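Chapter review: from sequence to fold.
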Amino acid sequence: MTQPTLILNGEARDTGSLGSLPLIDPASETEICLLPKAGCAEAQEAARLAVEGFAEWSAVSPFERGKILRAAAELMREQADEAAADMTREQGKPLAQARGEWMGSADCIDWFAEEGRRTYGRLIPSRTSDMTWSVHQRPVGPVAAFTPWNFPAWTPVQKLAPALAAGCSVVFKPAEETPITGWRIVRALLDAGLPPKAISLLWGDPAEISDTLVKAPEIRKISLTGSTRVGRLLAGAAGHELKKVTMELGGHAPVIIARDADLSKVVPLAAEWKFRNAGQVCVSPTRFLVEAPLYDDFVSGMAEAAEKITVGNGSDPATTMGPLASSAQFDKIQDLIGDAIDKGARVATGGARIGNQGWFFAPTILADMTTEMRAMNEEPFGPLALVTKVNDLDAALAEANRLPVGLAAYAFTGDSETRHRIVSDIKSGMLGVNHFAMAMPETPFGGVLDSGLGSEGGIEGIQAYLTPFTVTAKEH
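The token string follows.
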């Protein structure tokens, strides 16, 4: 079994200033190991180290930085089987999904290793012949990166890869529920040649660590993937310190099923992507807004597809959906279902716990959903598909845009006019038309409204870690 440790200055720390905390297996509710619990002391040390690490790492050319990042990606690929097993053990997702996430994360590092060589500036035509005007791109400085537990490899590399490629140093705090995966990524980076002070790895008391890092004068940028509530707190604190932020926050993704959609194609895709990672995905399709002519067939088709999903321990190759990641998530899902039923929702399938050990919950289809139900207003972050009948496209768009979040949205239609209308009117940072795949290294990933600030991925992802530097020079 892998025993993760804190890492500061390239050194393993198996003790923390705040003692220890248990790491729990969500499939068995048993303790995997005890973790060192860090707090203010380690965060202050990491911030100081980040200044020295930034001076050293930013002086390395983008070409050489790319070599180190690509070497780290190769090391990750070499340990894919072990890393996937660890991820499944600490997070619960099926082994195949864990391996796919790990390999995709290595690809993301590769992509930004190359993109770091293309952080172009520009020349601006000057107003006089004896002057040159130029804009250079400089790394913003030491970064504090905070990531959640649902994608413990992909979400960190969306921050670490562009930050390091740009020349920033990073203090990285993964979720306390999934530290092993974060530890493996940092070890691969260090083993590939990243200067030890250029990255630190902490977990422990989330509030104490985040408060210390946000206020630390050494840290110049904050990057968070998390809830809107936490995002508001960190963004407000960072704003007080005049620090740059990237915030990838909550969502509640609508899926518009137009009356011309082909349900033979839509339903299998919807079931696959809804219950991926037990629905614990910020862009998970959640509010299915189905035009009336297709409503009954969609509900019955989704129920049938959900019942074919194999729920079990993620280490079993037959498993297609693992447990929820924590008891808190489990309790939340039960509460939302109970509230919906009390207010008139119909359980087409699921709606209950599976077994009496581990946080396993049946894939659930709730039909006849209405806006007064909590699940239609609070992001479930679990295996709940919420189905609502709409009379027309106007009603679908109105419901899709009703909430003050706008991360991802989806639409299924073969009609060009319908597609154009949805593209024009939807309020989200991302839209998938006739598919659900959303996050790629090459494309920006981010939301609007309460879903966040800025984007990760694509050229926008690395620009978030750069700041323009203008030089105007006059000849003697």
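Two observations follow directly from the output. The chain has 14 helices and 22 strands. The first strand starts at residue 6 and ends at 8.
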